[in-house]
Each structure stands twice: as structure tokens, then as C-alpha cells.
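User: Let's play a game. I give you a shape written as C-alpha cells, and you guess the letters that built it. Ready? Here's round one.
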């Protein structure tokens, strides 16, 4: 019998397209513009916390076996999550393989958004892979939190707590 491996599998990110965006737009406005232009539904989730600073994190999945989209702010006040050259304010991540035509269309649409200085696909070097690992950890925590919130036993417990609170309020009135 082969012994179990204790190694953690690290994602290769080979099927992830990373777009660097330079824009002075606030995060929610950029997400709104991307949603409109690409027909997505990016939603803000818990912030990515790095060295005690919150960096905005938006997430959208088209469902199993489809693309997953993230928009991550790289700047919070004067703190920069990771410095890139040229300066980038956001990373727009598209997980799962894109056809070359789809990637060209997405890039064209992003560049048409008023307020985006530049947008380009980044090569995945060692530094970018570290950034992607940090973002992937945040995404996994968010997914686990959402699963826990939607767990039937958790929902039942919340309902019991609400019913108990309602009973207490009725008894007091």
C-alpha cells in the first residue's frame, strides 16, 4: 500500500487569465462598469485582509464548469497589496480556460470602459503566483463561509434562535 502524501497541492493557475487594470475609479463603480460591459454579476464579498488592511474583493461564478471572475483592489488608502510596474490598481481574474476570441473580446470591452487607464493580460511570474495564492485563499474562505451559512442545520439553528427571540419579545409585550 502506498503511503499517503502530506503535501499540500498548490494550484498552478495555468487556466487563470490575469488582467491588470489601472483606474482611479472606486472599486464598486469599476465593478458596476465591468458588470454592465461583460454581462456579469460581480458582488463584493469579505475583503482580502493583508497586513491588517482591507482590500476589496468581488466575486462572480457562472456555475460549475464555467468561468469564475474576481476583481481585487490592490490599493487601500496609501497601502499597496503588491506593487506592479506599471502601476496597477486592480486585478481582474478569470478562472477556467478562455478561448482566444473570448479573451480578445473581454480585453476590448474592458478598454472601452471610461475611466480605465490601461488593461492588459499579465504573465504569471513568481510574484504574481504569490498574489494569486493569496487571492485563492481568500476566495476559498469566502466559499466555505457561504457554504456554512447555507448549511441546512445552520439555517435551522438560526430559525430556532429567531423564533426564541420572537417568543421573548411577545412575552414582554
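Assistant: Ready! My guess for every position:
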Amino acid at each position: 500500500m502506498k503511503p499517503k502524501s502530506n503535501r499540500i497541492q498548490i494550484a498552478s493557475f495555468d487556466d487563470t487569465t490575469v488582467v491588470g487594470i489601472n483606474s482611479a475609479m472606486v472599486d464598486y463603480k469599476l465593478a458596476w462598469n465591468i458588470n454592465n460591459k461583460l454581462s456579469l454579476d460581480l458582488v463584493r464579498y469579505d475583503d482580502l485582509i493583508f497586513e491588517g488592511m482591507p482590500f476589496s474583493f468581488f466575486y462572480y461564478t457562472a456555475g460549475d464548469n464555467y468561468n469564475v471572475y474576481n476583481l481585487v483592489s490592490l490599493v487601500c488608502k496609501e497601502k499597496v497589496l503588491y506593487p506592479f510596474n506599471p502601476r496597477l490598481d486592480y486585478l481582474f481574474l478569470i478562472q477556467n480556460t478562455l478561448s482566444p476570441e473570448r479573451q480578445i473580446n473581454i480585453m476590448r470591452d474592458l478598454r472601452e470602459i471610461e475611466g480605465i487607464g490601461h488593461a492588459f493580460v499579465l504573465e504569471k511570474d513568481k510574484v504574481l503566483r504569490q498574489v494569486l495564492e493569496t487571492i485563492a485563499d481568500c476566495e476559498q474562505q469566502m466559499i466555505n463561509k457561504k457554504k456554512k451559512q447555507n448549511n441546512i442545520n445552520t439555517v435551522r439553528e438560526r430559525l430556532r434562535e429567531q423564533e426564541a427571540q420572537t417568543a421573548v419579545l411577545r412575552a414582554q409585550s
